[in-house]
Amino acid sequence: MLNKLKVEEMKKEFRSCDIDQNGFITASELRYVLTKDGGDYTDEDVCKAIETYDVDGDGRISYDEYVKMCDSIEKQAAGVDKLVTSVTLPEEKMQEMKATFMLFDVGNNGFITAADFQLSAKNYGEKLTEEEAYNLLRNLDADGDGRVSFDEFVKRFMAM
User: Which residues form the EF-hand domain (predicted)?
Assistant: First the structure.
């Protein structure tokens, strides 16, 4: 489920791709958006993307299809990130990261929320305001679902 901030971001992105503002992204609009900043996409790449994500077969991408396309791309990227993380981190470092993650995962549910950050800080005698906890969460929450998974946690700290 997308949070409100993510939904607004997706709508804004969709509108920027929908150049003629008719509520759909055509192949030519998609090609323009993908190549305007130097992206190297062929007509074949663009047509394949349209074919893949154009569920109703009308030759263009609606907002709902766009959301599904972005979700699919994010999931594929997350799978690649997970593979890269498992290949690049030595076992000892991975165990260290898991132990650190578990310190913050107060609910022991495999995710860290803003409330978890606040409670963890309190457990260590520190105070973290709601705003500080939310900002910390926002910096780590790559997919915008309002919580930090172990993969997001590792990815962020590997980038440091």
Answer: 5-40, 41-76, 92-127, 128-160
**What length is written for the chain?**
160
Asked whether 147 and 113 are in contact (CB, 8 A), the reply is: yes
For the chain, how far is it from start to end, CA to CA, in angstroms?
29
Question: 146 is written with which tokens?
Answer: 């309002």
The CA-atom distances, in angstroms, between 113 and each of 11, 107, 138, 147 are 25, 9, 10, 5
CB atoms within 10 A of CB 27: 17
DSSP structure string for 61-105 = EEHHHHHHHHHHHHHHHHHHHHHHHHHHS-HHHHHHHHHHHHHH-
- CA 120, CA 112: separation in Å to the nearest integer? 10
| Domain coverage including residue 153 | 89-158
pTM: 0.48
120 three-class SS: helix
The domain boundary, picked from 44, 75, 106, lies at 75
Domain boundary among 75, 101, 124: 75
Q: Residue 150 above 90 pLDDT?
A: no
